[in-house]
Design a protein that fits this description.
Layout lengths: L2 H6 L2 H24 L1 H6 L1 H26 L3 E5 L2 H4 L7 E5 L6 H11 L7 E5 L8 H7 L3 E3 L3 H13 L9 E4 L8 H13 L13 H11 L5 E9 L7 H5 L5 E10 L7 H25 L13 H28 L2 H23 L19
The structure holds ligand LV5NTVZW and [(2R)-2-oxidanyl-3-phosphonooxy-propyl] (Z)-octadec-9-enoate.
């Protein structure tokens, strides 16, 4: 292990990175809160400010992936589709099998200039996660309860509000609704069998209602669906803790651009269309497993310096007061103050560890896990 790699794996380094992320994140949340009066005067101005504030926060995590861990993200796509990326609104359909799939998605958002405005249909529980969840609230992220009776109006209303959104955005939809585990796969394949649908090897059976409601409500606003399939070379199983440790991963993303007009309006036809899409995605994954690559040419956008510059800026801004505080603390010689600070630091690390836990598949919810969820 090289010296730099050894440094990256040190707990003290992690503590510093997390400190910068959390404290700057809370500060950004506060700035977002201050944009509330602006909403009353100019909604579009408030939205544009929030897009930039969100960029300041999410690009720190992107910088950690791209510059700290040096993870390589390769894009497989047709050149005629590539020219549209970042220049139109789109619905992104992505497989949900990795702890850091959302972060790889963010990396591509950053490279195509839509990171600050990127959106997702997220489970409601994530809105309570400090920093990221609170940021999403101001970014008009669409939350769902994964209860269709409530979601059908809730999600539709939130999507309608995006019709006058002032900047290009990608709206991410994990149609599988939860992360892939062997148990959830087994349960969802029972549902597939009962519906006479083919067995999927690499995906859970997609939930079609959220897709249908999204497509219907973003018609006229989104131009296309980006069917995206993510995998990692050499069977890597990336984690956020691994990224924090400076481990380098190799992500491959295959994207097909499908104009929204090609997607059926009728709910049943739209559901059948999505099932067929997932059967195709499954065959791409199988091809990747067999050959180590996706179909189509590689047209990767390079990582940009912006995420690194933003990260260095916030690090300087946050580490300076920390340095002043620590110097004052040590020179005061007060044992009580030092103990209180240590207790505070320990509590903060437990809090950050909990946040990182939200990304871990082994802490995944029970949604889709139980036979009782079978609506058959
Ligand atoms: C060029 C580069 C391109 C791309 C780059 C890639 C990406 C970048 C893009 C953007 C990045 C933006 C942000 C990323 C940042 C962070 C993201 C982080 C995380 C958030 C993710 C989540 O929170 S995922 C969880 C929430 N989302 C969803 O659940 C969406 C999918 N779900 C649905 O659509 C659901 O339908 C619903 C939520 C709307 C409603 O849920 P409900 O439970 O009520 O489901 P259903 O009504 O669908 O269930 C009943 C039907 O399902 C059948 N059933 C029952 N059991 C199962 C089972 N185990 N598996 C499958 N199906 C099942 C049942 O039979 C019913 O069938 P019907 O035929 O009657 O529909
Ligand atoms: C720059 C240094 C930063 C270091 C510190 C990083 C700390 C930040 C930690 C976490 C940010 C929270 C991001 C939450 C995104 C979680 C995405 C996710 O995958 O959600 C799961 C959901 O889809 C389905 O849930 P279930 O599978 O049903 O359960």
């Amino acid at each position: 292990m090289g010296l730099l790699q050894l440094l990256k794996s040190q707990f003290l380094c992690h503590l510093i990175l997390c400190y910068v992320f959390v404290v700057s994140g809370l500060f950004i949340n506060l700035l977002q809160f201050c944009t509330l009066p602006v909403w009353m005067v100019s909604k579009q101005l408030a939205r544009r400010i929030n897009i930039r504030l969100a960029y300041c926060l999410s690009s720190q995590m992107v910088a950690m992936l791209e510059w700290w861990s040096g993870t390589e993200c390769t894009l497989y796509t047709e050149p005629q589709s590539y020219r549209f990326y970042g220049k139109e609104n789109a619905i992104v359909v992505l497989n949900h099998s990795y702890d850091i799939d959302f972060l790889c998605g963010w990396t591509f958002c950053e490279r195509f200039g839509v990171l600050g405005s990127s959106k997702v249909l997220a489970k409601k529980e994530l809105s309570y996660v400090p920093v990221i969840g609170w940021m999403w609230y101001f970014l008009e992220i669409v939350f769902c309860k994964r209860k269709w009776e409530e979601d059908r109006t809730l999600v539709a209303q939130s999507l309608q509000k995006l019709h006058d959104y002032p900047e290009h955005f990608w709206f991410l939809l994990y149609c599988e609704g939860t992360r892939f585990t062997p148990k959830k796969h087994q349960v969802s394949m029972q549902v597939a069998e009962s519906k006479g649908l083919p067995i999927l090897k690499h995906h859970l059976l997609p939930r079609t209602k959220g897709f249908w409601v999204t497509v219907q409500n973003l018609r006229g606003k989104a131009a296309a669906v980006y069917d995206s399939t993510l995998n990692f070379q050499n069977n890597e199983k990336p984690t956020l803790l691994g990224v924090l440790n400076g481990e380098k991963y190799h992500a491959d993303l295959y994207v097909r651009r499908i104009p929204l007009d090609l997607i059926p309006e009728d709910e049943a036809e739209c559901a059948a269309w999505l099932h067929k899409l997932y059967q195709e995605k499954d065959s791409f994954q199988e091809q990747y497993t067999q050959t180590g690559r996706f179909p189509g040419p590689i047209v990767s956008p390079p990582r940009r310096l912006w995420s690194l510059i933003n990260w260095l800026f916030w690090s300087c801004l946050m580490l300076y007061p920390l340095g002043v505080l620590l110097t004052g603390l040590i020179s005061s010689g007060s044992m009580l103050s030092i103990i209180v600070s240590l207790v505070f630091c320990s509590a903060a690390s437990v809090g950050v560890r909990w946040m990182i836990g939200q990304t871990e598949i082994n802490k995944s919810s029970n949604y889709g896990n139980k036979e009782t969820t079978l609506n058959i």
